Amino acid sequence: MNYDVTIVGAGPAGLFASYELANYLNGNQKYKILLIDKGTRALRRNCPLMSPKEKCTFCNPCHINYGLGGAGTFSSGIINLRPDIGGELHELMRSWDAAQEMINYVDSILLKFGAPKDRLFRPNEEKVKEIQKKAAKAGAEFVPILQRHIGTDKSPLVIENMTNYIETSGIQVAEMTEVYNVQKTGNNFVLKTNKGDVESKIVLLAPGRAGAQWFYEQTKKLAIDTVPGPLDIGVRVEVESFVMDELTSAVWDPKIIMYSKKYDDKVRTFCVNPRGYIMKEVYDDGTIGVNGETYADKKSNNTNFAFLATVKLSDPLEDTIEYGKSIARLMTRLGGEKPIVQRLIDFEKGRRSTWDRIARSTVKPTLKDVTPGDISMGIPYRIVTDLMEGLEKLDNISSGIYSSNTLLYAPEIKYYSVKTVVDSNMETVVDNLFVAGDGAGLSRGINVAAATGVLAARGIMTKLDLN
Fold first, then answer.
1. pLDDT value for 467
2. Domain extent for 39
3. Distance between CA atoms of residues 354 and 359, nearest Å
4. Which pLDDT score is estimated for 53?
């Protein structure tokens, strides 16, 4: 099979690149374009954990991590409408105004395909000022952001609508297609897949967070220039919703950033899910993790958020993905292939939680497929210290977080891969090889991932002389 352009990965980066190319093609069949994804279509993605059984059956591939729409499809569907949240788009584009315009463009496309117009959350200025004062006194920073909430229940339809548009515009979509490796042969690329070889003149790699390890392996084979990337390691915190009401009434997904006293490590909140649920993730290598989701209609009594410490490594161990995976492997074994849940009071005292102790908490866990245990048995001491310090600071901003009722789930690890060296069109040092999104280390969220996909598509159009 021969194509002019092949896009690997149909998450936000790959989908938005496909959309941009579809727009410029405008039905023109002159160019053959293929969009590949390891998983299935958005409306066919069905996690057993979301069924009444609430039991992980280790689907291959995991419907939470893989499939059209990417891992973000079953997240809370929060779109941060700022270019410096979810990545550094303003640095990639070398202009704040241009980057903000791009984020607005991404938002307009989501609205076009069904994202709810009435779920735009503007920061409450009066409440924001009060929280910023509290944060400053606690030694933290509270960042107010304009956000759109699509919702876990609404996102699949938005993705499906977008996919249908892409297909009717002439782009071929290949689901359940795994790319084993990418080779440069002469002026073309050959992609080895489970459904045969694909030859392409231009390739865009957008494998997403779940494909970060795969992408890292490809960079070595293809001699793509990269720099070491960071890694976020931590836990997902679950509290009763009223504990976080002051924060979530000011900003839907409040961003709080701080630096630990002992190690000066960056610690932050991420992906806050007001009245949301916690989900289990399963990766290709069998390691597990946790994430959060929020529905537009369905509500729990709890609010959850990721609490993450940023890790940067240097020579001789610069492979942050392998470092993260080594922790994930240990945590997976400790939890018997299930995430570990622990009361904060037990975490503080260094003792294992049991189901009896969990039952004493007023917080009723929204993820049942877990193992009560001791998170500090698998998370490095430095990270544990960062998290403990950070949770105490958070309690000074939102009283009740540092409580014996609070539940912690682990591991929550964000694999961002190495950061790829690219030009303004997202092209690598390898001619005609473009990259985009979280898997390439260029973003840390749906908004910037989508934006890098658009930038890559525009660079590809220049190569195809479509402009």
1. 44
2. 2-115+151-227+419-464
3. 9
4. 61
